[in-house]
Design brief:
Layout lengths: L6 H13 L3 H14 L4 H13 L3 H13 L8 E6 L2 E6 L8 H17 L14 H21 L1
Antiparallel strand pairs: 1-2
Helix pairs in contact: 1-2, 1-3, 2-3, 3-4, 5-6
């Protein structure tokens, strides 16, 4: 590269390493990112997830331990959408939405309809995979925020 890559370039490369399962380059890039910002949870989480996808549980534990030792805390995932000039913010596993009962009822109906037409969520094969419960969990989470926004 004619210039030294910054955190944005390295972060994009690390994400690509995860997609293409290139753990060797991913580890190198994560280390470079942590040199730039050792308190950024992103490289730790991506690297840990890459190891988990490969079933390398000792490496997962090592990365998470390193993260704890550095005092790094992963912030919960969130997304937001603006509907009719009103901002709706959704945090992972947050069940406090005022319309949560309606949301989960619709989500259950949509999940059943998708299963009836043969939808199967894409999952990675690993030793912890339980087809029925994991598929429903993934399907549920894929739709949860979208339904939440539509009902909200």
């Amino acid at each position: 590269m004619p210039m030294e890559p910054d955190a944005v370039v390295l972060g994009s490369l690390l994400a690509a390493c995860k997609v293409h399962r290139n753990i060797t380059l991913g580890k190198y890039v994560a280390e470079k990112l942590l040199e730039i910002d050792p308190l950024n949870s992103g490289p730790y989480v991506l690297l840990s997830n890459m190891y988990a996808e490969l079933g390398r549980w000792k490496d997962v534990v090592r990365v998470r331990k390193q993260m704890r030792q550095m005092g790094v805390i992963k912030q919960p995932g969130c997304s937001w959408i603006e509907i009719q000039s009103h901002l709706h913010v959704f945090m992972v596993k947050d069940k406090r939405h005022p319309h949560k009962n309606d949301i989960y009822l619709i989500l259950k109906i949509l999940t059943e309809q998708l299963k009836q037409v043969g939808y199967v969520p894409e999952v990675d094969d690993d030793e912890t995979y339980d087809e029925e419960s994991d598929s429903e969990f993934i399907l549920h989470n894929e739709m949860e925020m979208e339904v939440d926004a539509a009902v909200g």
